[in-house]
Amino acid sequence: MRECREGLELAQQAPSADNFEDWIVRRFGHGIARHFMWPYNRKLWARDLRTMSTEWVGQRIAGHRGEVERFVRDDDPRRPLQSDTEVGYPSEGGFETLYQRLAAVTPGIEVDKRVERIDPVARIAWTSDGRSYQWRRLVSTIPLDHLVERVYGFPVGLREEVRSLAFMSLDLLLLRTNIALPKAPQRIYFADPSVPPHKVAFNHTSSLQLRRRPCHAIMAEISYSPTKPKLAPEVAEADTIAALVQAGVLPSAEVVAEVRHLDIRHAYPVYIHGREWILERVRRHLEALNIHIAGRFGEWEYVNSDECLRKGRDLGLRLRSRHPL
User: Fold this and answer.
1) Domain spanning 113-165+272-322: which superfamily?
2) Nearest to 218 by CA among 231, 204, 232, 206
3) Which CATH code fits 166-270?
4) pLDDT digits (tens, 9 = 90+) for 254-308
5) E strands, 111-237, in order
6) Maximum CA pair distance of the chain?
7) pTM, entire model
8) Reduced to 3 states, what is the DSSP secondary structure of residue 251?
């Protein structure tokens, strides 16, 4: 603790650095960097932190109380969450309730359709089931590297640059207990590299209706990438459950009644050097074809669901004002 306190006191008040690893030291000092920020972020991002830029840190990384505003740019739409930040969550059901309600008032939604080809001249999109869709304005939320592969005539050189954009993947470990967990925290963040997940969430703590259920669910995020291989399922399960027992969240491994894995290839976009320049040129090229991008991997931005909804709404309003239906 002494090393962390002293390092924080010596940390620069207006940090700037060429890469994320150095930024951590300048912002928090060597103690916090060595004991938490370096190991935690190496687990989370599954790569060398020196390959990452720092353009995103003002929106995501909180400092100690009273200093947050100093490190957030005026044009940042988001502020880092604090320990007393209040967020909304559906009082009944889970997070998907938000989207079920939106879908109920949004006509024409078709699911399980995979877009395979897009002709920007004829303005036709073809799906894997053989159907075609004529469009005037196209908004894409699929990963940008997938989109540019599907657009006829997309410049080869620019496509290669999009392929260089980085991301990390998740093995989402889902556990169901056969007992209630009334004293569970909302989340636990593990910096210890021997513990598979970097983050474990107990979403029932955000809903009275879920909290009353006789059994609860646990979601553990385990990142992987080409430089951090995916763990064998049995290892990820055993080591994660053991860590939760040791942390006192689970009384024993026997209370885990069900285990599932969900593989999410595009999980978090990574802010590498040169990312902004690539995205700006791709956006200009696509918008000239009347193709617009939105969403976490559509725009290759580290945004959460609330921000995706806001950005989608704003894009819709802009398009409507330019080309009224």
Assistant:
1) FAD/NAD(P)-binding domain (3.50.50.60)
2) 204
3) 3.90.660.20
4) 999 999 999 999 999 999 999 999 999 999 999 999 999 999 999 999 988 888 9
5) 115-119, 124-127, 132-134, 138-140, 166-177, 187-189, 199-201, 217-224
6) 66
7) 0.88
8) coil
